[in-house]
Specification:
This protein has about 575 residues and is α/β, with parallel strands linked by helices. It has 4 domains: about 5-100, no CATH class; about 120-210, no CATH class; about 235-440, Rossmann fold (3-Layer(aba) Sandwich); about 485-580, Arc Repressor Mutant, subunit A, CATH 1.10.10. It is built from 18 helices and 20 strands. The strands form 6 sheets. It has a 5-stranded parallel β-sheet with strand order 12-13-16-11-17, with helices on both faces. A 4-stranded mixed β-sheet has the order 3-2-1-4. A 3-stranded antiparallel β-sheet has the order 5-6-7, with no helix packed on it. Strand 14 and strand 15 form a beta hairpin. The radius of gyration is 37 Å and the shape is elongated. The N and C termini lie far apart (about 95 Å). Residues about 1-40, about 55-80 and about 105-120 have low confidence and may be disordered.
Length: about 575
């Protein structure tokens, strides 16, 4: 049975608080309870006065209460009674305090126990999008359909049956808050509201609020337009993108259009990669470098153009938003000669691999160290050469001056937006990219740079053999570039000596030589030098080259030698032979 509640209204007076005895000088209309309200709820009779600001309510413990929802209002309306005066109300209050008992909680029915995998839980992802010319949050909910019946449950547990994946989409406005007093959901962007507005269905009172959705900063990257596409055909999307890129920018090699198009598509699978290559556009002024970067900002996933962006902002963008970076004039900005340039270069170089971190000291706390995630997609453009380590992680495109078909990108803005919408559907409606496997032909750095593009091509049904050939050709060209260098000539002499079972001067021996003498190398490499000054200069060049090869040296009877049977050198030589294509 519902407990009856007694209240008394005292009009046009300044009543005292029942607990503290202090005079309430702020309200002319005040009501006291005769008995505790369940769940600290207002009574229906008080809502009208309180809503107008003409009354306040204090229960017998002196605490202000939370407003009723509609269901609770109807419930208490039936049990409300009014005491005739304050004295009677206080007397009833004392009697009720003696007899009141807390109601026993109704036990909830036990949940049905089912042995099903943990990935059956709903996963929710948010993405800022443009919808009906308004920036909103796209809520992506991913869940696995629960198996039906004991037989399906057993098959799922054994791994014999995959659960059906269900994806749903919902749009929510940004900057939404919920009033803690009346429960109304209102919009307040960008700051937290202080009053619950009646014109949005609120109570009109000053209140605290719970945040429902964050505000969206639409100046960081291009916000994609949302449209739910049921029959997504990524094979056609790729063809449309390839044609559009060719109209907007001119690359010297045909394969480079495919590489850049696949790179853009691969950015939409951020979160699935272990390494990524960096497109690097190198060329003179007005050769189309910036246009290539603009295409990436228009079509790729969360790419922030760093023009006017500080280095700390770049660090936070990659860490908190998993955003990519576009850095124009990078040969100047990634300059080791400046403090900021060294910082940026140290931030960028290792960021091609998952798990990479940028660590910095906290400026306010000398004992605190802050670690930021810096892995992610990045693209660069510049006129001069770059750091060698950065070049080895890059897809290099040497640009040439030319005039593309499209003079300005705003002429095809609708086409760009439409492709980006399709790529947004691709991100959330398709599974993870194709795994290349452990035995894939590309190894090491080539796989790290080009593997993302090849995996994306396989995922969307595009051939990838030409990309593999291009990557292997780059490796071959790099090896050819090493031919003719002093390091290459040193390795040729050492390797031929090992294979022919002779000493370095050609004498036959039973076993391969254990040492290579600097003196013998110098005579084989520079047979025509006679003067002591020339021999000293060439000897220094030889010493520097051996150091660059990172071969261990030692003194033997006062002469410099390279020990060949030392494990460190034998392992190093095997690697160098592969690197130099021997």
């Amino acid at each position: 049975m519902t407990e009856k509640i007694y209240i008394v209204f005292l009009k046009n007076v300044y009543p005292k608080n029942l607990d503290t005895g202090e005079t309430d000088k702020f309200q002319k209309h005040h009501a006291y309870s005769v008995g505790m309200f369940k769940n600290n709820e207002y009574k229906n009779k008080l809502d009208e006065l309180v809503g107008k600001g003409e009354a306040s309510y204090t229960n017998s413990t002196g605490h202000e209460n939370i407003p009723l929802n509609l269901e609770a209002k109807e419930k208490w309306k039936k049990s409300l009674e009014i005491a005739p005066d304050k004295k009677t109300a206080m007397k009833l209050n004392k009697e009720l305090n003696k007899t009141r008992k807390e109601p026993e909680p109704t036990p909830e029915p036990p949940e049905e126990k089912r042995e099903i995998p943990n990935d059956m839980k709903i996963k929710e992802v948010t993405e800022p999008v443009m919808y009906n010319n308004e920036i909103q949050w796209l809520i992506i909910k991913k869940e696995s359909k629960a198996p039906e019946g004991k037989q399906e449950i057993k098959m799922v547990i054994k791994g014999e049956l995959e659960t059906e994946k269900i994806i749903s989409f919902e749009l929510k406005k940004q900057g939404m808050w919920q009033c803690k007093k009346c429960g109304a959901v209102i919009e307040s962007n960008p700051k937290e509201p202080t009053e619950c507005p009646q014109n949005q269905g609120g109570c009109g009172r000053t209140s605290n609020f719970d945040k429902i959705t964050d505000t969206i900063n639409n100046d960081l990257w291009k916000i994609p337009t949302w449209k739910n596409i049921d029959d997504l055909d990524m094979f056609s999307v790729y063809d449309d993108m390839l044609k559009l890129v060719k109209r907007c920018v001119i690359f010297p090699e045909e394969i480079q259009y495919k590489l850049i198009t696949l790179w853009i598509i691969s950015t939409w699978k951020t979160g699935h990669w272990s390494s990524v290559g960096f497109p690097l556009f190198l060329g003179d002024h007005d050769s189309g470098k910036t246009r290539a970067l603009d295409i990436m900002r228009e079509l790729a996933y969360r790419m922030i153009h760093s023009a006017g962006t500080t280095f700390p902002a770049m660090v936070r963008a990659t860490h908190f938003y998993h955003a990519g970076l576009i850095i124009d004039e990078a040969s100047d900005r990634l300059n080791r000669k400046t403090d900021t340039g060294r910082e940026m270069l140290n931030f960028v170089k290792p960021s091609y691999r998952e798990g990479s971190r940028y660590t910095a000291a906290d400026k306010d706390d000398p004992e605190k160290i802050i670690s930021y995630k810096n892995f992610g997609f990045k693209s660069f453009a510049g006129e001069r050469s770059f750091d060698h380590a950065l070049l080895s992680r890059s897809i290099i495109v040497v640009m040439q001056q030319a005039d593309p078909e499209i003079p300005e990108l705003y002429y095809i803005q609708d086409e760009l937006d439409d492709i980006q919408t399709k790529l947004l559907n691709y991100r959330y409606k398709t599974g993870p990219p194709t795994d290349l496997g452990m035995t894939f032909i590309l190894k090491g750095r080539l796989r790290e740079v080009f593997g993302t593009l090849i995996s994306t091509a396989m995922h969307i049904g595009q051939p990838c053999e030409d990309i593999i050939d291009y990557a292997l050709l780059i490796k071959k060209e790099q090896q050819e570039d090493l031919i003719g260098t002093l390091e290459n000539d040193i390795l040729v002499i050492i390797k031929s000596s090992e294979e022919s079972q002779t000493t370095i001067d050609g004498e036959m021996v039973e076993d391969a030589p254990e040492y290579v003498y600097y003196k013998d190398l110098l005579e084989r490499l520079f047979p025509d030098i006679d003067s002591p000054e020339d021999k000293k200069q060439k000897g220094q060049q030889l010493g520097y080259a051996v150091r660059r090869l990172r071969l261990k040296t030692k003194k033997l009877h006062g002469k410099n030698v390279i020990p060949l049977h030392v494990k460190k050198n034998s392992n190093r030589l095997r690697y160098l032979y592969r690197k130099y294509g021997m």
